[in-house]
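Schema walkthrough. Field components (list of strings):
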Amino acid sequence: MAFVEFTDVCKTYQMGDVEVHAVHGMSFTIEEGELVVIVGPSGAGKTTLLNMLGGMDAATSGTIILDGCEVSALGEAELTRYRRHDIGFVFQFYNLVQNLTALENVELANQICEDPLPADKTLEQVGLKDRMDNFPAQLSGGEQQRVAIARALAKNPKLLLCDEPTGALDYQTGKQILTLLQDTCRTFGRTVAIVTHNLAFTRIADRVIHVREGRATQIEANAHPVSASTLEW
Amino acid sequence: MSARRRGASAFTKTVVRGIGGSLGRFLAIVGIVALGCGFFAGLQMCGPAMRDAADELYDGTYLYDLRVVSTLGFGESDIGRVREVEGVEEVMPSISADVMAHMGSEQLALRISSFDVEAAQKSEAKGQSVVDADDNRYMNRLFLREGSWPNGPQECVVSADDQGLGVGVGDTVEILHGASDSADLLRERTLRIVGTVSSSVYPYTGSYGSTTLGSGSIGMYACVGEEAFDEDTPYTELFVRVRGAQDLKGASDAYEQTVGAVRERLEAYEGELSQMRFDDVRAEAQKELAEGKAEYAKEEAKAKRELADAQKELDEAVQELKRGRKELEDGQVSYDEGKQELEASKAKLADARETLDASRAKLAQGHKEMDDGEASWQAGKRELLAGIGLGPNASLAEARSQLESQRAELLSGREQLEAGIAQAKAGVEQAQGAAVQLEAGIASLDEQIAILPEGPQRDELVAQREALSAQLVEVRARIDEGQAAIGQLEQQLAALPSTDKLDQALGGIAQLESTRSKLDSGAAELAAGERELAAGEREYKDGVEQIERGQAELDAAADELERGRAELADGEAAYEDGLKELEKGRAEADEKLADARKELAEAQKKIDELEPPDIYVLDRTQNEGIATHEADSRRIDSIATVFPLMFFLVAALVALTTMTRMVADDRIEIGTYKALGYSKARIASKYLCYAGAAAAAGAILGIVALSQVLPMVVVSSYGIIYTIPMHPLPLPIDIPIALMSGGVGVAVTLLATYTAVLASLREVPATLMLPRAPAAGKRIFLERMKPLWQRLSFSWKVTCRNLFRYKRRLAMTVVGISGCTALLLVGFGLHDAIWDIIDCQYGPIVRYNTTVGLKDGVSQSDADEVVHTLETVGNAHDIECVQTKNMQARGDDRSAELLRVVVVVPQSDESLAHVLRLRNRQSGEDVSVGDDAVVLTEKISLKYGLSVGDTVVLYDQDDIGNAVGEGYPLTVTGIAENYVGNTVYVGRNAWKTVSQDPPVFSTAFATLPEDPQLRDRVAGVLHDNEDVLTVVFSDETIETYRNMLSVVDLVVVVLIVSAGLLAFIVLYNLTNINIEERVREIASLKVLGFTRREVHAYLYREIVLLVLMGDLLGMVLGTYLETFVVTTAEVDYVMFGRTIHPVSYIYGFAITLIFMAIILLVMRRKLDKVNMVESLKSVD
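Field assembly_structure (string):
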């Protein structure tokens, strides 16, 4: 059985009188330890997919399974536990708590988990050893995203979900972040899913899921992913 | 032009939509501005509302504007004189007297005033504030609440507020005595209550004014017709209404000017008026004096005549007495003589008696001897007769003849016998000779027979002999026979009685016969003695009778003498009495005449000394009730300025934070407008319009609502102690106050808004189009304490940093919440302060519960008797007698206003301490009232800023309560905690400074057990005691106070509600802003897997901390605010409790937290609604 299994998942929003099918019969699988890139244009259902996988939103129908656990069947409180222990989330806009230092932002996640990684080690791992005591406003965008990644990693999650992790960053910094994510997957064998509209990122993935109009139109395995540091777009 | 209009309308649309889009924010501003403006306007209108209600009543009842009193009263002519003064519309005269009266179970000071009963009967009450009457001269119109108007001198009406006396229609009022002789002015000593009234002269039920009687305050008022007073009683006061004053608002400047002008005119006229009154009174008095003098002359002559008559009578009595004495002496002499004579006779008679008694004894002896002789004679006779065998009745002669015959017989018998014997004896002697021969022949034959041997010779002989012996035996038998016969004869002879006996008997008879004759002669002799004795007895008896007669005569004489003597003594005593009486009569007459002379002289002197009266013109401010009401309304005015200040400050802060947030939200929009070329003012106007609309709506809402609610609450609360009716709803809104209040509210909000917008408007459009750089995290000082900081969880760290990051919100919350707590604390503290007046005064300080007032000149022994009654009947354990005196006091500063005080001089410091605990509130040390002590109660010291060592000046006061004299300066030695009334405790030595007279301890404070029956008994016994004027049990007083103080509860409720509103608005706004601003953060936390509870805690922790800070600050703020309110609201007569009870702090603190908890619970739903998807959105 695959690590992550999406089987015929639908998500329908009721917008007034209109039903919007954001995700419409989506099915795919992800194996443990893979770096997956979910790619598609705006409005293809990437975010909805991410929400459901991240336990932020429930599917209307279909099943979602992570590591043998049927996420689509969880209740509100169980979803909270799921987010808390199984998922690490990296936001496009980092979403750091402004009033906490880098270290404290990591600890924030750290403190609610059962089996967290040491916050300082994690920060060291993302290359922010010297900036631990700085507030977000004192860090560059890339550094902030590193903190966010460290925060997600420190939870020791089963799955690291990244929503346009480079979206708010310049090219160089974006590349560094991608490298970091790839290293995380390669070095620590952590399953990483990156949601992006940038097709260039597919080259670094072990598996690429193309999403279009609410469906996974194409799922391809990449036998030879390139290193993110060599990536250009 | 049209484009412009369209633009404007589009712009307006954004404003309107803005409101719709952020209703919470809008309502927060509306709410806080409504509270601020409403409170300001409402409280500001409370005072005017009270004054308006009072003015309506005063105008409606034609209450006097000025009251003129004179120390000599007024006559009819004075009324006309006053009426002619310019500006005086009407004058109404009245007689008023303060008396002590017995009403219900209490004795109290009663003010009795006359009024125009006729006019009152024709009057008609319209509503609660107006009494219609045709007669404009009828002033101070009364509302008849129950019963009927008085009719006749024995009827009265009293206040409808019975002051807890429990008296009403049908009860009676007993007049006991008055100030000086005011009670004598009344015709009747008992008045019947026929109705109850409300009078606008006495609007304050807490006190009907002060008096010199009793406890110093008037406990009840009664209104009577003029006929209840003696005919020639002068009017004591003239009530004056000023032309035009009725149309002006009472206590307004215009009113005061109008009335003041007339007052000045009257005061200017005082001298003339006084002189005229003086002339009137003196002429009247002089006339009376002349009459008095004539009367005196008449009386003097009469007395002298009467005395002379009495003297003459006495002189005559002396002569008569002398005569009587002489007669008595003569009588005594003759009596003594008679008595002597009688004594002599008595002695003689006694001798006779003795002789008689001796004779009688002798006679008795004789009789006895006779009887004995007779008896022995009879016995002898009987024996004799018996001896000779005669019956006892045989005579002696018979006996003699018998005896003699017997003797003869006997003698013959004897001779026969003796002859027989002699014959017998001769036979025997012959036989005896023959026997002897025979014996001799036998003896000789025996001898022969003995010698001859046996043979026939001898046999012969023996036969012979035998023959002889047989002969002998025969002889011998003859002898024995003879001898036996002799014996027999001799026996017969011997048996023959001798003649001795007969002789003896005969002798006895002879003796008896001689004795008989002797006895017979003795009897005769005795009889003669008897006769003699009887004659002697008779003679003696006569003597006794004679003496008895003499004695009786003598006794009668003695009695007569005794009577005479007693009569004389009586006569003498009567004379003595008469003499004494005469002396007394003379002395009395002298004294009376002297008194009369003195009186006349005094009257003359009085007339000579008579000075023109002092005339006082008093306005309404000198009426205690009216003045108190106005002062209370002014007090509200001053409180009214403080509370709203806080609300306005919070309103400004709420507007500032809200609008800051709004502007921040609209950053890009502002940038866009700017880029589109809108002017700063135009852009700002959007926010100003928004805030202005909210503020205006709030102002209108708040003012309309609270300008009704607050004055209603306040006026109706005061309605408990004032008889002034409330203006019917809706209350008029004071437009200037409303405009000012609304203006301030809107202006403050706009100012805050403008401040918030200004910062953003300064930025160039380009920067505005970019998302605002998030405020940088900052380190706070707490982080320097590493060990502590590292222990904090991230959420505490965030909380701590956030607290100091949003300073405006911190200010708003802390100020708002502290305001809320402060309001609560003021509410509860006010409640404490007011209830403490009673709770701290009665029990902790005043330990006695019974006050007994004695007559002024009471002697020590009479006072002791009352104390004894209290101890025995009342079981009182602690009693202290003191002197009390109503005086006035002030500090050394002679320009300061005077304060009415009671000066108490205790008999002993020690026992005073048992009934009153005097101690310093700050130091907690007991204050002693030693001989030199001058102890002030705390309120006096606070009012004049006096402390130990300072000088307090005491003033005497006259009957109408004006201070007189230069005052007596005393040095303060102590300050004692006290809440009700103002008292100066003065030691005996210190009292000498005030008065040369030693203090009279005529008031007793006592502690009685709480047994109503016992108290009734004590009251009964004491009321019967003539020395007792008043008996007051303070428990009843306390009950009355408690009723009055329930006013406070309503105020507390108002304060709690306002505090709740304040807390709600502030916390709602704070939470709202916090959530809106941190939506991303909240969403991110949710995505990170924070539970609902953790998210609530994350956000609420900082709100709770802010609230706690505000709450604590509110404790401090509230303490000061409460002190301000308490000292402002306090009146001279009482001191409010100065400490807020710990439990009130707890309530204030806790209720604020409860408000917070409610709001946080409500806001939780909004927090839960925050969608996690927000975290994915870009920063806009």
